[in-house]
Amino acid sequence: xxxxxxxxxxxxxxxxxxxxxxxxxxxxxxxxxxxxxxxxxxxxxxxxxxxxxxxxxxxxxxxxxxxxxxxxxxxxxxxxxxxxxxxxxxxxxxxxxxxxxxxxxxxxxxxxxxxxxxxxxxxxxxxxxxxxxxxxxxxxxxxxxxxxxxxxxxxxxxxxxxxxxxxxxxxxxxxxxxxxxxxxxxxxxxxxxxxxxxxxxxxxxxxxxxxxxxxxxxxxxxxxxxxxxxxxxxxxxxxxxxxxxxxxxxxxxxxxxxxxxxxxxxxxxxxxxxxxxxxxxxxxxxxxxxxxxxxxxxxxxxxxxxxxxxxxxxxxxxxxxxxxxxxxxxxxxxxxxxxxxxxxxxxxxxxxxxxxxxxxxxxxxxxxxxxxxxxxxxxxxxxxxxxxxxxxxxxxxxxxxxx
Length: 403
Hints:
By secondary structure, the protein is an alpha/beta fold. It is 49% helix and 11% strand. It has helices at residues 8-11, 40-44, 47-59, 61-64, 92-105, 136-139, 147-157, 174-182, 202-210, 225-233, 240-257, 275-284, 301-307, 312-331, 335-353, 358-372, 376-402, and strands spanning 12-15, 21-22, 33-34, 117-121, 162-166, 190-195, 213-219, 260-267, 288-293. The longest helix has 27 residues, at 376-402.
């Protein structure tokens, strides 16, 4: 297999946990620093980031990243930073990007350029209670990012290509709204918003209307009010129609601001009959539909039985729906959607032969626990072997699909 070098250690700075831990990607949990313990500058050229860049050069992404990473499957094109040449030549984002590209090509591990993609999770707090949320217990602790980081943020906003407020629900937090309200909208830095689409008040709409946007990614997890209520609201103060109305408003905004607009659904036993309906809903709103099989957040057997144990007829209906949906997204030129549908089909085939059987899921859980008991020096070769086996298995299922 040809070694794939991912640019994320050179371009991405992500705080995906309000405890302040910094990673290069939301799909890789290697902690490279913590904003409670150091500044962005200290972490960006600290030992963690330098080690990640060196390992990426030496071993490639397949050796250090999970096989499920969408980037490895050709997805997440919206995270590419290659559009920097659209920016003004004398602007800070363009100059920083050009220096970063040069430093990447020269295989430098200590950089003079700054993050081009900066994602931060101010808090896990949220106005919904989604069935698959891995943040639920942490959200009760009300942990927040330090004031020091929020004060630093404007400095790097002027140099980054993309700033991505994350959550929880990012529009739920006063400091995030204040930061966005105070942002200089004349800067070419673009914003990437992920939202559950239930808190898009007039004030929030005004805020996001005034800033440059690269993408709005809304998560819905359903194509009907019944599924939405069962999977996301569960007693919280939100409803299906308000979410749909807000999504329509985003679709109208997209017409004159020209950003990428996506709508996502995690597939499970409750909504698995809605695959095609969800694609039709998204396309009708002017959004690109993105679907993946839901992950079991805490690897619990009860969750596996309730949401991830499908019948043969459910599998067959999902496979048929995927085939019907592919021409629809292809006609719109939605490449990420096409990649997601193809990957969903492959993952469902693997799931049907593996974790869909509770006994196999339990055996895998035992193996995971045993792995984490191994000394670190023994975990590395085991992880590499598992990654190679998973890659071969993934290639085998892809080969089945093409025949």
